[in-house]
Amino acid sequence: xxxxxxxxxxxxxxxxxxxxxxxxxxxxxxxxxxxxxxxxxxxxxxxxxxxxxxxxxxxxxxxxxxxxxxxxxxxxxxxxxxxxxxxxxxxxxxxxxxxxxxxxxxxxxxxxxxxxxxxxxxxxxxxxxxxxxxxxxxxxxxxxxxxxxxxxxxxxxxxxxxxxxxxxxxxxxxxxxxxxxx
Length: 182
Fold this sequence. Notes:
The protein is mostly helical. It is built from 4 helices and 3 strands. The protein has helices spanning 7-38, 74-91, 100-123, 140-180; strands at 44-45, 55-62, 126-132. The protein has a 3-stranded antiparallel beta sheet.
């Protein structure tokens, strides 16, 4: 797939995705920097005491994937983050502008992948800090990757429903033409 785009066309094509991904990286990195400056590793903070069993902020390190899966896979996930980011950047221009759900999903996943990649390069691990009940500790980047997957699944589901409706409508039109003799 070779897309010949001028610089202006590339800028117009990538601008929405890079704006969203850039905002995600900024929020992710700022939230992690504030956390690292305020809490020692393993230390937690509960803004509202009665929420402690349900939600807290904790300074945690993750050498695995999102939500603490596959610990000690840091080098693999560093490479994977680069590969995923490269693929998103490569395929994004081929996504039709009307397919906003896929474009949004790609932007969310790019921002999340880059946010965690930056941590892996700088520290050798990802800084996580949101702890909800018994769920693994996570961060802004993890959240955006997950939301991106949800948006992607939802977009595919909606597209399939629309395609089925279109096929049914076309089938109905063909039936009407055959009945009308035309």
